[in-house]
Amino acid sequence: MEPATPAPPAPHRVVVLALDGVLTFELGIPQRIFALPRDASGRPLYEVVTCSVREPGPVRTDADYAVLVEHGPEALATADTVLIPATHELGPLLEEGVLAPELAAALALVRPGARLVSICTGAFVLAAAGLLDGRPATTHWGYTALFRRLFPAVRLDPDVLFVDDGVVLTSAGVAAGLDLCLHLVRRDHGAAVANDVARRTVLPPHRDGGQAQYVRSPVPEPRASTTAAARRWALSRLHETIGLRELAARESMSVRTFTRRFRDEVGLSPGQWLVQQRVERAHALLETSDLPVDRIARDSGFGTAQSLRQHLQAAIGVTPTAYRRTFRAVGDVPGRG
Question: Which long-range contacts (CB under 8 A, 24 or more apart) does 163-168 make?
């Protein structure tokens, strides 16, 4: 008698908590991103469930319509990841930093070990529950002063698009929720799967810089010179040695002007940006090729396997071999928990 074929792992369950006043854009992000990833057999890697703090029924949004939510708070007890989108109706939370009783009761149902994620002002909910105390976190830049006043124990970073602190992740406002959800797909299943989702949703796989660039300069001045051409040039030559003077020369700028302009536009120094892009290139080669690590180190611009190991350890805490073993076969990636 042949042994029974093991059942495929259950999809990772993402439970989205829709609060009254939820922003419809942020509410739609989890379903749009997590509904796309599939394993090698075409099975969904995620399941998205939306719930309310009350019995199933309508939930007000920030638009001129409500949404009909078919699950009550008990769904939170089944979550592998709990995601809290932004809402404009936080009531006493925005005044006193205190959860409403029904929200506190709902969050108490979340099982230990579940991953906690917020988009924009959803971070206020996690903070009021005491789940961000002592942790790094972010929220929409427009709410940072209020957040700091209400939750001084949180290590708030208002300049980044999102913060990954292991089992607790927070994002800045609106489109930064897309960045964070793509990051979760990349973290769970590797760059190849995340890049496929990005292509299908017409999004950049990785957005440069942080939200500070949007605070300081929301709209570039007409005809202002930029560093975009230099970045495009560098991306086609990551395997080569690229100096700061070469980058500045591509834009006919002095090194000082180029460095300042680059940081204003991207939120990183040219050197930091180059390392980030080379790590992304190494991720893709480790997942999609059989090239030896020495060759991947050269092709991604790190030169030696030792340099690649050091940069990969600093970026994501694993060696090239461990990364390849984890993410090479999408079908082998576990689903739940």
Answer: 163/136, 163/137, 163/138, 165/135, 165/136, 165/137, 167/113, 167/114, 167/115, 167/116, 168/115, 168/116, 168/117, 168/126, 168/131, 168/132, 168/135, 168/137
User: How many Cβ atoms sit within 10 Å of the Cβ of residue 337?
Assistant: 13
| Residue 95: per-residue pLDDT | 84
CB 169 within 8 A of CB 203: no
Instruction: Find tokens 């006493």 and name the residue.
Output: 92
d(CA 128, CA 99): 6
**Could you tell me the two tokens for 43?**
């099975």
As a whole number of angstroms, the distance between CA 153 and CA 273 comes to 31
Helices (H), 190-254: 191-200, 212-216, 228-235, 244-250
Block mean pLDDT (10 aa), the chain, length 337: 67 97 96 93 95 96 96 98 93 88 96 97 96 96 93 92 93 92 92 88 73 48 68 92 93 92 84 90 87 93 93 85 73 37
Q: CB under 8 Å to 209, separation ≥6 — which residues?
A: 161, 265, 266, 267, 268
Phi-psi region of 76 (alpha: psi -120 to 50; beta: other; left: phi over 0): alpha
13 to each of 41, 148, 263, how far by Cα in Å?
19, 32, 38
**Distance between the two ends of the chain, CA-based, in angstroms?**
32
**CA 236/CA 246 separation, integer angstroms:** 14
